[in-house]
Amino acid sequence: MPNVTVRNLPPETHRAIKARARRHGRSTEAEIREILKLAAQPAGALRFGDELAALGAAAGGVELTVKRSGKPMRAAKLA
Fold this sequence. Notes:
Layout: H1 11-24, H2 28-40, H3 48-58
Helix pairs in contact: 1-2
């Protein structure tokens, strides 16, 4: 997993993040990960899988039975 180093973080910002982490019952590092995740993946972003699930639910539900062979898939030929 990638690592990020943030230099020159103002002390008051660090204190605020530590306090926020305590309120949420997380470590400071976990809180920073959550802040970055929320900033990078806004709540209003379209999530294709969620949209498909909602469409299926609106149509009365869909039952899929998928059996996998366990064999690796071949690459698609796009021509």
